[in-house]
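task queued by scheduler; priority normal; single chain, no ligands, no partner chains; default sampling; output format set to structure tokens
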Amino acid sequence: MVATAVIAHDFADGVNTVALVRRVSHSGRRALAFLAADAAAPVEGALATRWVRIPEPWLALGLAFFVGHFLYIAACDLIPEMHRGDRSWRVLAVHLAGVLLIVALTRLLSG
């Protein structure tokens, strides 16, 4: 299950990487280089766990730091952006459906 989620996330991440690089430089070669680096990063990270151990208290602090940043981005950029334009109610409904789906899947997988 986790592997499927990682692969799906990495696919979307690769699409975003190529789109951003192409928007800035219009170079297919540069976009391919960034895509290769983006694809190699999770594999390198997984391999690094064989040699690098992070103590649990430090891991908890690191995770809390990044969770805080993700919540900040959602609260300041993504959620206000949903309310702009004519289709804001539809976007809000999709957002809430996503939250409910995450809650349902979490409950289903945890017990």
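post-processing summary
- The mean pLDDT is 82.
- The radius of gyration is 18 Å.
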